[in-house]
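Lecture 7, part B: from sequences to assemblies.

Below are the input chains for today's worked example.
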Amino acid sequence: MDLNCLSQWLALSEITAVPSTIVSRLLRDFESLQDVVDAPDLAAYGASPEIFTQIWRTLKQTVAPPGAASALLWCQQPGNHIITRRDGAYPPLLKEIVDPPPWLFVRGRPETLLLPQVAIIGSRNCSVDGREAAAMFASDLGSRGLSICSGLARGIDTAAHASACKAKAATVAVLGCGADKVYPSSNLQLAQEISHTGALVSELPLGSPARAEHFPKRNRIISGMSAGVIVVEAAERSGSLITVRMAIEQNREVFAVPGSVRNPQSRGCHRMIRDGATLVDSPEQVVEQLCSLVDFQIGSLGILAAEPVALECTVANGDKTAGKAEREVLQQIGYDPVTVDKLIERLNMELPVLHAILLKLELSGRIRCEAGRYALT
Amino acid sequence: MDLNCLSQWLALSEITAVPSTIVSRLLRDFESLQDVVDAPDLAAYGASPEIFTQIWRTLKQTVAPPGAASALLWCQQPGNHIITRRDGAYPPLLKEIVDPPPWLFVRGRPETLLLPQVAIIGSRNCSVDGREAAAMFASDLGSRGLSICSGLARGIDTAAHASACKAKAATVAVLGCGADKVYPSSNLQLAQEISHTGALVSELPLGSPARAEHFPKRNRIISGMSAGVIVVEAAERSGSLITVRMAIEQNREVFAVPGSVRNPQSRGCHRMIRDGATLVDSPEQVVEQLCSLVDFQIGSLGILAAEPVALECTVANGDKTAGKAEREVLQQIGYDPVTVDKLIERLNMELPVLHAILLKLELSGRIRCEAGRYALT
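Predicted structure of the full complex, as structure tokens:
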């Protein structure tokens, strides 16, 4: 989005009492505040005449308020981005929820937000078993081209992010503070790594400290961006259960990893399974169940691709016709496993596009992935 | 059953080719072979004229064949019993399955077969976690008055039986060999203990060795006698899965205990849960789910009780009217926990009857059980 328009929207959000949900709805349909005031009727947006006056005032101001001004400066630094819901880089599944944030502050590589994502969440006070399970799911699903989403908290979140980084897979951390901060501070170095292989994301104004009330809202973004949520260890009363409730409201798949009956940190997962969540003890089970949502995501990605032809993915299971891009990728894969880096080198293709095609080919059973390397089946 | 009649039935089974299912059906409706030949029509039993001739021949024989003769001798030794499906001591739920055995050879205390039963089964090659979980469920459910049924195999079966014995609870071992044998021989001492606190049961002729083909038939008795089957650890291809299939056909509840995702012995349980079995991580969850089947069992027990009035159990959850026997039991229970032995002493009541009443009172929330002792709630 044009910086001038963005500045107006940020200012509106900063200085007026217009609720964020209304800002988000207006932003969905209007490029600039000028377009809003030119609109014949705003009643459908829940905008009262009072709100209309606020918008007018914001538009007339010639100097951006301090928050908006510093946000504009921030997003011009390398690696920093503000992605509005009008932007092609906005996570496609997040647009589908009831209250998508009007924009996201993003540190790192925004293209990872376009990959099919799966959330891995759980207890801060997890057991060794839980940490290992989170790491195993993150590394395996990450190597298959899914981006691993979590909340950068201690315990399970940390294990999931760290394992994805180690597997050179994409990972997205949604923060309960501003995108220019890191909480908890023990994860400063991990956050640095994530900004290289993935992205740190927040809807909160820059500089916001981590506060208890931010976390439930943060959790709706974690589940909203993801095709499914995997819970690894959760005590009977746990914050993870809030994320799960949101995931269910957002129509996302909910998976729970079981554990020993003697581990109190597994009780929440067991309760979820008794209540209908899908038990998973291997990453394949997650991939199988997510096919349809991942397909939707790949479809959205196709629209955004620089060369639209590159994603004419018409391959269904067993369908032997393939798009041009898929054929190109297939030609570079043999029975000898090859890394993603090697494929990038050979194909001159964007990483998210390549990942999406690899996932599609894997789901259709034409290639297989082992420890991050791809080969024909 | 009268020894003479029993001798005829055993002889029929031993020397003719009449299938066991037909013997069982005939035995359901006729006291003696004489009654069978006097019947106007046997077509409904699947008995051809040929079978009728066999029955005739058996009836005319004056000397019992060796197997029948030695079985009669065996069951006159202390602690040995042959219980036919006409006997009141035959397990009530087992009568309900498609192919109940015509009789059971029982070593130990046949009255334990009348208690509400729950089966605990699983891998021979179990982990320490699995053994501990089996022991925990067996000891807790046993202390609540349920009889613990299993197959005396190594691993989970052994842990369940041993833990029930240790908790002084009733336990029933269904054997894949004759009731006068023990397999595996490593469980000789455990079998001895079971014969004191519970029962060893087999439908096979005395002297039968343990054979692979006996086990699936044995498993239908384990699930058939039980209100529910709890599987603790089972590999992906496991004998326990056969028992589970039978339990489902017999309309029994199937419970599975989860475990670590790194434990290959938990894979079968996880698969079962994904396919619809109920995940349980605490014994309370089993008790809650079994209420209705246990009620049925207590009803059957009422018919058999020496004093029928003793079991006019009309208490539903929250219903404050209680039968005479329940009132008697309640009068002996205070807020200070009391053992079953003490109650037996005070009440002069049969153990199965007392157990059934205690379970009923516990399910209705009027008393609670802690470590085998009962107190008012």
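Note for the exam: The two ends of chain A are 43 Å apart (CA to CA). Keep this in mind when comparing with the next example.
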